[in-house]
Structure formats: C-alpha cells, structure tokens
Amino acid sequence: MFHYENGLMLTRPRLAIDIPRRQPRAFVSHAHADHIARHELALCTPDTAALYRHRLGAGRRVIEMPYGRPVDYAGARLTALPAGHCLGSAMLLVEFEGRRLLYTGDFKLGESLTAERADPPRADMLVMETTFGHPSRRMPPRAEVIAELIGLVHRILADGKTPVVHAYQLGKSQEVTAILTSHGLPVLQHPSIYEVTRVYQRRGVELDNDDAGVGAYQGAPLAGHVVVTLPRSMKAYRLANLGAVESIALTGWAVDDGARFRLGVDHALPLSDHADFDELVELARIVQPERIATTHGPPGFDEHLRALGFDAQPLAPDAQRRLFE
Ligand SMILES: [Zn+2]
After folding, report:
1. CA of 43 to the centre of ligand 1 (A)
2. CA distances to 21, 94, 111, 142 from 12, in Å
3. Which residues neighbour ligand 1 (ion) by CB within 5 Å?
C-alpha cells in the first residue's frame, strides 16, 4: 500500500519518498526545494547528496545510492536510476515480494548537458509526475529552442544591451549556462546560482570551456556576457547596475499563450527540465506497467492514458491503493 502526502509514503516496505517534511527515513529523488526536508536519514544519489547538503547543511545524514546499484532495504531492493531532470535526479525502482514499482520523481526523457539521461526500466506499477500532462504542453525540438536562444542573445548583444536569462537556481540555470558557454558565450550568474554551480563543478560537471567561462555577477555587466538570474517570481532576482537589458525566461510554461506577459519578460522560450506531454505518454509505453498512478499534474492526464489502454488513476492526496498484492 502507499499513499500520497505531497510525496509518496510506501507502507510496505515503510519508506517516505520525496515528502517535504522531516521523516525518520526518506528517499530524496532530487534536491529541488519541494522534494527535500531535514530528514533524520536520507537515501539519495551522491550528486543529490552534495546538493542536499549544500541546501540544508553539511551534517545531514545520507545513505548514498549511486545509479544502478541496488540497496537492500527492509526486505526490498531499492535502485536509483537517472531521471534526466537535474544533476543527481533519480527515479526509484522498488522491488518487493516479486513486484516492481517505479517512482519517477521529476523527470525528463531526452538530452541534457548537465543531467544523466533517463533510461527507464519496465515495472509492474508506475507512479509518475505529470506536470505537463495536457496536450497543449508539447515542447518544440530542443535544437530549435537552443538555436532561437543563441540567435536572440547575439542580437541583444549586437544592440548593445545585456541579455538577462531568468531560470531556476538549481538545474535550469546550470543547463542554460552549459548551452551558452558551449556556443562561445560567457556567463555571469546571480551569486546564489553560482553557489549551486560550484557544487556542480565540484561533482565534475563542466559548465565552461576555454572559449567561454562562468563566474558570479560582481555588480556590473561585462561586454559580450550573458547574465543568468533567478525567475522574476523570486524577489531576489534583481541585480544592480545592469543597464539596458532584454530579459528571457526559460521554462516549459513558455508554450502557453501570453507566457511572456505573465512571466514579466521580453521573451519566453520553452526549454524544460520536465517531460512534455508526448514524453509522459512515451514513458508509460516504455515502462509497460499494469497500473499507473499520476501525481503533480493537471486533471485529465489519467483519462488520456486510459484512452490509450493503460489502467491509470490520479494519486489523490488521501488515496490509499492496493499495491503489492
Ligand atoms: Zn524538480
């Protein structure tokens, strides 16, 4: 049995998964704020452990689970597998009494420069996030979005202005930085973003190269540099002395009409670290589960899965469902 409390609680074997409230023992799929808490003991990948400790304190107790190496836990076998969402992000495969449950956490299929690519296994039961579980949430090909971003940045620089990219502190900021520097465009990051970038670099993720580096914004823009800062929804996004700018939000929500107005930016481009609608369906086809529970998404995605022949239900906050039977 399991139930949902903003994360997942397995009752057999007893294990909290991604519950953002202190637990005796919890699997942490990745280090985004809505998935972590000061647990007595956290199970997570080594990269997530580094980011988790960066965010919540160096003394946090962790059992590290490198990708693909099963850990015995209360009679179950637990295996962390790449989720493609941000550095260290993991799906969790639980094997218990001959049955396999796959919990996706936040995930993305396809390429990333800063996260290990997801390669989901087959399982009997699938619990999946469905953030973009509406047919309107289909992302254009990544290469097209990157080409548009690079062209836009060059045009803004040529106009004598500073391109300012708004992106989440952990994951998206590092991904866009790697994209920009790999195109020869040096980056200055909001200091709080740069702290996370230092963790990525210590974990061996290359975010710069000989042609274009990354550093912290030091109170003034530099010629030819792109500035990466926090989303405008976060008060701390402002940086002093930027002068003339054009702002670009990078988010999957940019596929929605009028996104740039709602986000308060000049441009919005749909680069996402979540699976889009088609990737969500693709995941179900790869995993081929007997049953699917959907979380973290709009109503109706489970209906879409049922129309495709899957036995799918939303995992409501108070839902209790038979799992290993
Ligand atoms: Zn996340």
Report:
1. 17
2. 20, 10, 35, 40
3. 32, 106
